[in-house]
Amino acid sequence: MVTEYTVERVKSGIQGFDDLIEGGFPKGTTVLVTGPTGSGKTTFGVQFVYKGAELYDEPGVIVTLEERSRDLRREMLAFGWDIGKYEREGKIAIIDGVSAVVGLPSEEQYVLEGNLNAEDFLRYVYRVVKAINAKRLVIDSIPSIAFRLKKEEEIRSVLLQFNTILLEMGVTSILTTEAPDPSRGKISRYGIEEYIARGVILLDFVEKEVELKRYLLIRKMRETKHSMKKYPFEINENGIVVYPSGELY
């Protein structure tokens, strides 16, 4: 008798997206969201954590390494997302990884020191995840981790170590990175991110009648049947909306 294998799914909170991945991300997986500047990577990650708290009662941690926590909260209000509300309820924690690096004081509860090495960085994130019993984690972004390390050649070993720790945590994680040239197959800054992640999602643009349109492509998703089609999406007042049955313009 063959035992049926089922994969526990974590809903993304991205409207229309779960239809493309059999109902959600595999629980405990690490997903890389990559794309050029302005493609929506940060919004995708924050929406994943925010909707987890709002709709599914799943706490989440956001590690922001490119903008201050206060700026992130303000920007997300454009979508009606009151992150502060869920911080006060202990359902969301934002780790400020910017202030110390640029030499600014921070009044945040969770702040990364400016001179942390890779092990200290990982240990701090782990502590915050455990402190709020987080089920979801977003790290925005990998190139900013490399910047903090001052030695980009260390990023390969750090990512491998980080992926192992994430899997041990049991959280479902999104890591963001820059795609230097998706049209030529260069979908990550360091060329290793897509190999350590169990899922890879590319957000990019296509030009249509002198206008840039957004599309999403699932390059990889372990334990999941998915198409390799390009799906249109938009960022509106509700955040990211994917159109699973839509034509690519």
Automatic annotation (TrEMBL):
Keywords for this protein: ATP-binding, Nucleotide-binding
Checking PROSITE patterns in the record gives: KAIC
Pfam families tied to this protein:
ATPase
KaiC domain: from which residue to which, for each copy?
8-249
> InterPro entries, per this entry?
KaiC-like_dom (IPR014774), KaiC_dom (IPR010624), P-loop_NTPase (IPR027417)
Give an example GO molecular function. ATP binding
SUPFAM superfamilies in UniProt: P-loop containing nucleoside triphosphate hydrolases
> What name does the UniProt record give this protein?
ATPase
| Native source organism of the sequence | Thermococcus pacificus
